Amino acid sequence: MDPRSSRFAELTSGGGLAALAARSGEPLPQLMEARRRSLLARDDAAAKLAALDRQDDVSVVVMGSWGRLELTSGSDHDFVVLVGGSPRIAVSPTPEQVGEVLNKAPSRSGAFDDVAYVDHLVTRIGRRADDNDNLTRRMLLVLESMAIAGGEAHEAARRAVIETYVDTRVKDYRPPRFLLNDLQRYWRTICVDFEGKQRDRRSKDKWALRAAKLRTSRKLLFASGLLPVLECHDLTAEEMRIWLGETFAAPPVDRIADAFLRHEAYDAGVRTLVAYDRFLGHLDDEGFRDELRSLTRGDEDRSAAWVEARRLGRQIEEGLLALLFDRDALARLVRQYGVF
After folding, report:
1. pLDDT tens per residue across span 23-38
2. Domain boundaries, the chain
3. Are 71 and 106 in contact (CB under 8 A)?
4. If you placed Cys at 16, which of 110, 210, 254, 316 could pair as Cys (CB 3.0 to 4.6 Å)?
5. 6-10, 181-185, 220-224, 298-302: least confidently modelled range
C-alpha cells in the first residue's frame, strides 16, 4: 500500500465515512450530525481558549466521543492538558482554566481533566510505571484525540508516540508488534476493567450504559486501531511511520469505513456503520440513556433500550468479524499476528 496513493489521500482527508455512505446510499445521518456538532463545539472552545495563556509545547486535547467526532447531547467533555516534555511546576493553561471554558471542573481522578506529559507516554510503556491512566492517555492520543488548542504540539506528541512504537527495530513488511501488543493490551484492559467495576458495589450504577458502549463504540475503537496496524504488512518501516501518522489523524469511523471499502466488504461495512449510526441516535435520546442508567441486573431483558443496544452491538460485531475473517488477506494477517 503506497502512502502516496490516491486511496491514502482520501483516507487522510477524512473521506472514508462519506465515501461508504455515498457508495451504499445510506446517509448515516446520526454520524454526520455528531461530526458537525463536534466540529462546531471544537471551534467554539478553541475561540474561548485563545484568550488563555498557552505555552508553546502545550496542547489542550479532547478524547472520548468528542475526540472521535461523535459528540451527542449526553457526551462528557474528557480532556487532558498535554505537555510535550517532562514534568514541571508551571503549566499553562491549567486544567482548572480549561474546565471553566468547557463548563467542567477537573475531577483530578482517572485519566482525564489533568496534566499529562509526553515523556511519560513514551518512556513508561509496560511494567509498573505504565498504570491504567498512562496507558489510556497514550492509546487515546493515538486512536481518538483532537486538539482544541495547540494543534502543532498535539501532532508532535502523537508523532512521538507512533515513532516510539515504530523504531529502528521494526522490520519491513510486518505489522509493528510493539504497537499491536499494546493495542491489544489496551482493549483487554477495557474489558477487564468493565468487569472490575461490576464487582465494585460503588460502581454498579450505569452498568448497562457502560456495557452498551463496550459492545459498540469501544469495540469499534479497537478495530480502528487494529486494521491500520495489520495493513502495515505491505509497508517498509519508513512508510509505516507515514501511514500510521496520517491514518490516526482521521476519525476512527473513517478508518473503519476505509478498510471496508479497501477490502470490498461493502455489505458488511454498511451493516456495521448503519448499526452504529442508530446507536448514536439512541445515545442522543435522553430517555434511552436514562433507561440504561437506571437498569439493574436481572431486569435487562425487560428493557427495550437494552434489547436494542444489544442487537446493534451484535450487528456491529458481526460486520467487523466478516471483514476480519471473510476476506482472505485480512484473515491471514489475523491468524499470523492476532493471537501469538
Report:
1. 889 899 999 999 999 9
2. 6-337
3. no
4. 254
5. 6-10
